[in-house]
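Exercise: predict the fold of this chain.
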Amino acid sequence: MKKFILFVLIFYMFNISYAQNNLNYTYQVYQEFRSNKSKKELFEIPKFNPRRITGLTYSVFVPGSGQIYLGHQTKGAAFAVTFFTGLVGAIVSQNNFIGNKERLETLQFDYLNADRYTLADYYWKQMVDVYNEQKMHERARNIFTAATVFVWSLNLIDYIFWTDDKGPIEFSYKTDNNFGNIFSIAIPLN
């Protein structure tokens, strides 16, 4: 315990000295940030046109699709992948939770109908294991659900405040030096 307290004290002393040495640099960065962008500009909502409203609708139902619609493919793909990963994790955890609940009911029935002590003890140990596993799946389900809701909310906040419209993307006939002629259908995504 003494070593831990000594480690924490040294860690805090290092952080305090580091913070004091970099105070001037931090203040300069802060002043540059304030001069370049005020808080009002940071959270300024871009003007909504029909294209932005369509993208917002997409983003509400499929997170990341609004960002992709406005031309931010990487950011939109990141939101979509993290949202669907969390969603799949929540669904799998819920499935496992229900399966453990059904298994626990079966074990309880077997435990109550056991005619020998050793058999009842065997069922009891299995019930305890299944119950602990069920609680683990319940916690995992809650964590995945919270993460999914957080990513969905962050997606909407990012879309409303920090995603600008890069304009419609059109597919057309074009020439590429490496691959020769590339033909595709001209469809404006308005």
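Check your answer against the key: Residues 171-175 have pLDDT under 50 and may be disordered.
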